[in-house]
Predict the 3D structure of the following.
Amino acid sequence: MHNATLAIYVAVEVLDSTRISVPAPVYSIFMFAFATIWGLVLTRRLVRAPQAV
């Protein structure tokens, strides 16, 4: 989240372009969505895995 905020700030304030700032929040949204999905997949696989005694 901090990197996206920094990227937006640099694009808007330093480079003075809002078009350049668009990829940062889009990437952040996809990153959080895919991280959540991946976490759910891993959690469900670990719960289903048989435990060795």
Q: What stands out?
A: The longest helix spans residues 23-48. DSSP finds two helices and no strands in the chain. Residues 32 and 51 are 30 Å apart (CA to CA). The chain has a mean pLDDT of 87.
